Fold:
Amino acid sequence: MASPLTIHRAGATVWCTLDRPPLNLFEPTLIRAVRESFDALAADRSTRLAVVVGSGRAFTAGMDVRVLRDLDVGRARELITALHDAIAAVHRAPFPVIAAVNGPCLGAGFELALACDLRVAAASASFGLPEVRVGVPSVIQAALLPPMVGPGRAAEMLLTGAPITAATALDWGLVNRVVPDDRLRPAAEALAAAILAAGPEAIRLQKELIVRWRESDLPTAVRHGINAFATAYATDEPLEGMSAYLEKRRPNFTA
Structure:
């Protein structure tokens, strides 16, 4: 059987395609593929950025309900722990991850998108956490939702299970860009190019800080930042970047 997650390298960018069309539903094989793929990418320093996309007509419509229906408490814990570990591998990747969202982005799929650093959405995309409608709560990266959109909006999504449009997601700050459907890949490529133009080690330090800031109190977050700033000078990126700025030329960063 073909892998449910296909990996394609384009220079320093890795395109990760959820490849179980039409809806790319999560089940144990796809969960394992996401975890193993991102663990491998994290260990490969040639990977400077990843883009997660969905094949077919959806980013991913979430968990396969047929997998969820007959679980007991023990197997439910095992499944949700495996899903957490897979999504955490995306969240904690040492490089930026962009979600390029087409069509439905629901449930576990929405949590995957929330675990990414940036989100670009096609105009036809929709976002939702419908779990309560089938008898379970939304969990894992859904915890990132209240600080992103505010407690009231988050509670509405979590308690009603109703989806929102891409336009609403942009208004609420859930996505960075909304583009026509046929411009989704170029928009993701443009965002990736802007990141890749920066210093590779600076981007890795910044990504690490973004994750740490989500989990730290303010004084601890500031101390992490001080350490990251000093650590940047263990490389030649500050010298090259600032020299290029003063000389009015493009920096020549090495990966």
